[in-house]
Fold this sequence. Notes:
The chain is α+β, with helices and mostly antiparallel strands and 454 residues long. It is 35% helix and 28% strand.
Amino acid sequence: MSPRMPRAIVTLLLGLTLVVGSAGGAAAQQSTEQPAVAVRVSPAIMTVDHDAQGAQQRLRVDNTGSQPLHVVTEVAEFTVTPEGTTEFAGDERLSAAAWVSVDTPVFDIAPGGRRDVAVTVDVPADAEAGERYVSVIFAIPPTGSDGNIALTHRVAAKLYIDVPGDPVRRLELGALTGPRLVDSAAARLELTVHNRGNIHRRFEESTRLIATAGEEEFGFQNFTVLGDSTRVVEAIWADPPTFCWCSIDVETDDGQGNLLVASTRILMFPLRLTLAALAAGVGLSLLLAARRRRRTQRLQQLLTQATKTGSTPNNSHKGWRSWGRPGAGRRASVRSTSLSRRWPARSARCRTSSVPSPSAISASGVSADVRGEMRELKDTINGKVDQLNVFVSEVMRVAREVGTEGKLGQAAASSLEVRGVWKDVIESMNVMAGNLTGQVRNIAEVTTAVANGD
């Protein structure tokens, strides 16, 4: 290794270190960069009891942004929609917003600065008992905009003002709804809660609404339902069972010692998994059916070939079809065809093996019912054997008549359709019979002449 190589490696490592360091510094700078406008108000929710009315309540405002802020305070009554969105009411003559006053309606706050704002609540003596809901809003008007759109930032603190009198606590549970069928996923439930009383009710931590499904439990989100209002809240059943016809119940009290129950049923069924299994089963069935068709075609081809080269398959094995597997009848037919081809072969062997024996003359031919080339073989063997029988019969007749019975002049029939060696045997037999007849007749003539004294 040359001495320049370590220097190059060190230079490369230093370059990578600088790049990574600069990237990390840029990321850290971006992560620590403060927004231009950011305000935090605490506490976000304040409950003002009737005993504390008339006294000053403190709200703390912190500027966590990077720019100085000009803050304008506003007071408005608010409600909460069933979905949980806060809506502010306008200026009304009998609005509870008139009960709230702020000591510093307008103030400036530097970046990182803090300002305490004093809030005083004066409830009229003739106010209706219960709770009223008012927000102290801290608005930051736009300081200047080059475009046509100007944004006003607002942060609100909510005041729950308790009006002296008899509180009414009465809660009702509406419908508990959810999907009828859940396919191997989380189940989302919605519950409607009606507060028919005149004070708010919180469902947080220990008072949180719990849904039960058998032995399993899961909770609803934390929420507050104001007096004389309705909320729709949801819960997520994250890990339901795969198969279940589940009954889900939610229980709470109505504020007067009575038990409230909301129920629903959900079918847990892996529909997609089942459809996939069915599709796999159908595919496997089609594959097996195609395989069975190919096997049937091969057996049919074998039957056709066997029919062309042998006899008609024996139908005595048709009953096997009901006892065996599909295709057993065809296998029985092929087996029967094989047997029907084996019998003519055995018959032909017995026929040809009996030719050298004395029983050849009386032996019967191949009698099996065959077709095609097997029939041609049958006819050829039977013809040859019959021809050999005639040949043997003629030879035996000539030998018997000439040699035993003394009938001279006898000869084998020359009309026999024989060729080759068998034709030479016939001709030699006829020549021998002719020579024997001539010699015997010459001896007879000489003997006769001697007897006559010639």
